[in-house]
Amino acid sequence: MGLFTRFERTIDDGIGRRRLGYALLGLVIVFFLWFPNDTSQSNYAKTVFISGFFYAIMSSSWALLAGIAGQFSFGHMAFMGIGAYVAGLIARDGLMFATLGIAITPDSISSIGAILVGTVAAGLVGLVIGWLLLRLRAAYLALFTIAFSELFRIAMLTEYDYTGGSNGLSLRPLLQVADVDTARQIEYYLMFGLLIACLLVMYRVVQSPIGMFLRAMREDEDAASALGVNVVRYKILVFVFTSMIVGLAGAIFYSDVGSERIIPEQLEVLQMSLIIAYAVIGGMESLFGAAAGAFISRYLLEAMREVVITLPFGLTMADGSDAFVWETGAWRFALFGLVMVFTLRYMRNGLLYPIFNWFSGRDLIMKETVAKRKPDEHDMALPEDRDE
């Protein structure tokens, strides 16, 4: 009994919770590392996980931009498309800078080189948009990025001779592996590694002084500026940084890793709304919450394509089967919308926020802060009480 009480007290302590959280995180990472080695898992299941990793990168980077820095943008899918399309076009047609006398031929650039060019291109476009708009406030960034995303999608759709139009653009394969199972396993680890790397880099940024400046800007730009924060510089910096992350993710994902080609349909505003919904459900002020929300939501949406309902009490269908198969179709998105409404109404910090909050021990810190604040307020009121 004493051992259990000691264990309970250790868990109730913030340090004990964090240690338990690290242990569970380690188990989750071990599971993801083991999953592709399970021979019972199909390539389709691995593809679903790869897609989940991709959307986790997209949602966590949007959480950094909107949830932590307070810059609400609808341009993530467009920047992802810029990275993928530029990488594909560079690898296919090359690039020439006539004024500089520089020429990049398709034979002189590798798949990795094309991906890096696509990533830089996404960052440059983000720099231009940020320089033009991030000096303004309110809804200008959101409205412009909606228009920009739709303009980019239409351009990729109509320029059939260059982009393939609705048929999409094939990117140069990043991997040359003949065996399908081996290729899918390598692609799985590649995308999972990219997710971990992006999360670690973004987490490092959030925990640095830059992250403190970003949170200060989100709460009050005027106060942050008065304290010496160059608001415009850091707004542009985080916008370019997240643009490059999603550009890199798009170029790698569509280089025969998660899909054979990129199509303009992937750039629709509906896809961007899903990215935002994933982040909101997971917790848009938490990088790991947004990533987990995106992966879990993506997996459940795929799993709900076909729902098997076993009939109770020995009932059978007309064909003699004891189960009813429901092809959910678009109804799964309706259910997803209900979850979104519930989250916004009752758990605005995200469905996963209480879990991350408990493991981090932040609730204990908040309770301690409130407990200290109340006596301080009482002590400040004592002189007035004495005067009375």
Quick recap:
The protein is 70% helix and 5% strand.
Question: Could you describe the 3D structure shown?
Answer:
Helix content is 70%, strand content 5%. It is mainly alpha-helical. It has a domain of 221 residues. The strands form three sheets. A two-stranded antiparallel sheet has the order 1-2. Strands 3-4 form a two-stranded antiparallel sheet. Helix 3 packs across helix 12. The longest helix is centred in the middle third of the chain and has 28 residues. The termini are far apart. The mean pLDDT is 81.
Please give a handful of descriptors for the protein shown.
single chain, 388 residues, mainly alpha, two-stranded antiparallel sheet
Blueprint (SSEs and pairs):
Layout: H1 2-12, H2 14-34, H3 43-68, H4 76-93, E1 95-97, E2 102-104, H5 111-133, H6 140-158, H7 160-163, E3 169-170, H8 180-207, H9 209-219, H10 221-226, H11 231-253, E4 261-262, H12 269-282, H13 287-303, E5 306-310, E6 323-327, H14 331-346, H15 353-360, H16 362-387
Antiparallel strand pairs: 1-2, 3-4, 5-6
Strand order of the largest sheet: 1-2
Query: Could you state the order of secondary-structure elements as H and E?
Result: HHHHEEHHHEHHHHEHHEEHHH
In total, the number of strands is 6
Outline the low-pLDDT stretches. none
Counting helices, strands and paired strands, the structural category is mainly alpha
Compute the number of helices.
16
From the spread of the alpha carbons, the general shape counts as: globular
Helical content band: 55-70%
Mean pLDDT across all residues, rounded? 81
The radius of gyration over CA amounts to: 25 Å
Largest sheet: 2 strands, antiparallel
The rounded distance between the terminal residues' Cα atoms is 53 Å
* Beta-strand content estimate: 5-15%
